[in-house]
Amino acid sequence: MATATPQKITTFLMFEGKAEEAMTFYTSLFDDAGIIDVSRYGADAPGEEGTVQHATFSLAGQRFMCIDSATKHDFGFTPAVSLYVQCEDEAEIDRLYAALAEHGAELMPLGSYGFSTKFGWVNDRFGVSWQLNLPS
Asked: Rounded distance, CA 88 to CA 108, Å?
């Protein structure tokens, strides 16, 4: 039996102290999702003890990696790069949009923009940008 080929390109998300909270939130929203592996900063590590040094999680079978950066940066996430989700039905797009927009920022409210039945774009509470689409 052939083994599955590992994912060659993986989205990598850098947080500053919110990686675990973000992973837990994201994995609660999607089927076939879960936290795969987490390593944490120890007492003598450069990052805050107990925060995520490196983690792998999956959403709808797609793997992601994240960290809590031990270094403060003058940049964050940008909507120029977003996670694009093809939703199965109207209930799913409505649920995801509401959850991701809560304490976030609505960039394009849910609606029909001519290129899909229903579409919305949000930055979530962590600053990660999501485009949600319900195909025609």
From this structure: 20
